[in-house]
Amino acid sequence: MSDYVLFQMWGPFRRSLIAGHLFYVEQARKRLLSQFEDIEAESEKATDDWLQRHSGSFDPDRHDPGDFYEAAHEAGIEFYGLLSDMRDQTRLSVVAGMFHEWDKQLRDWLVKEIQHWHQGDTTKLKVWSADFVQIAELLESVGWSICGEEYFRALDACRLVVNVYKHGKGKSLEELKQKYPDYLHDPFHGSGGGFSDVEHRDHTDLKVSDGQFQAFADAIVAFWQAVPENIFDSNVDEVPVWFDKAIQKDRTGQKQASKQ
After folding, report:
1. Measuring CA to CA, how many Å separate 167 from each of 87, 109, 130, 161, 246?
2. What is the rounded distance in angstroms from the CA atom of residue 123 to the CA atom of residue 111?
3. Are 155 and 215 spatial neighbours (Cβ–Cβ below 8 Å)?
4. Cα-based angle 155, 128, 139 (whole degrees, multiple of 5)
5. pTM for this one?
6. Cα–Cα distance for residue pair 45/57, rounded to 1 Å
7. Is 169 left (phi over 0), alpha (psi -120 to 50) or beta?
């Protein structure tokens, strides 16, 4: 009995996916994130600049030098805060771009492989519209056990982070609180009070550290490396209901069209 290949990951294609991803990460660090490497020094410069700009208005007979230095210090703190927020938003934007590219490449690969053995727009469109959990179910059903892998856990966290970054409050925020609260910064850390509870945090507390960004990037590499070279139809147990319905709808449409 023959055993058909349902999905195939061609070696050069796998390498090109990983190479493109690594290029994105490298260039994002070099061209975007590197600009925020020394915001402490920049905030100190902002303090000095404030003093220089306002030195002409200082009158020793009427002004307290301490007040001027305090105002300059506050200007530096404000600059640091704004630049820190910009750094965090830039990193989240880079993470979002990285995740969306991986997600699109995965779905595109799945659709192209499916078209080798099944024709129909319903299935193709359903793969593109299915959510992350449904795609994971499909991969599991064809014999690729990914849900227990560490890289999948990181990708799941990345998916929720990106959704919260895009939409703010909602289902993804609540799921992130429950499953991966480390991505929600605790503004009251160390206080020991009830306000430190994760339930009090919201989308404005979303942050991804440099280490977490790298972990997301590494998870995408690990995912592509783990894709089986060949997935055979004998590996299939029972496909998800949503996928089976799409297949059957295409086949019904083809039968009706052949009768006309």
Report:
1. 19, 27, 18, 10, 29
2. 8
3. no
4. 50
5. 0.90
6. 20
7. beta
How far apart (Å, rounded) are the C-alpha atoms in residues 166 and 92? 10
Supply the DSSP string of the chain, one letter for each residue. Answer: ----EEEE--HHHHHHHHHHHHHHHHHHHHHTGGGGTTHHHHHHHHHHHHHHHHGGG--TTT--HHHHHHHHHHHHHHHHHHHHHHHHHHHHHHHHHHHHHHHHHHHHHHHHHHTTT---HHHHHHHHH--HHHHHHHHHHTT---TTSHHHHHHHHHHHHHHHHHH-SSHHHHHHHHH-GGGB--TTTTS-SGGGSGGG--GGGB---HHHHHHHHHHHHHHHHHS-SEEEGGG-----HHHHHHHHHHHHHHHHHHH-
Tens digit of pLDDT at every position of the chain (260 positions): 358 999 999 999 999 999 999 999 999 999 999 999 999 999 999 888 888 887 667 666 666 667 778 888 899 999 999 999 999 999 999 999 999 999 999 999 999 999 999 999 999 999 999 999 999 999 999 999 999 999 999 999 999 999 999 999 999 999 999 999 999 998 766 555 555 678 889 999 999 999 999 999 999 999 999 999 999 999 898 999 999 999 999 999 887 777 76
Q: How many residues does the chain have?
A: 260
The domain in which residue 172 lies consists of 5-259
CA pair distance 95, 211, nearest whole angstrom: 12
Calpha distance 71→50 (Å, rounded): 8
Domain count, the chain: 1
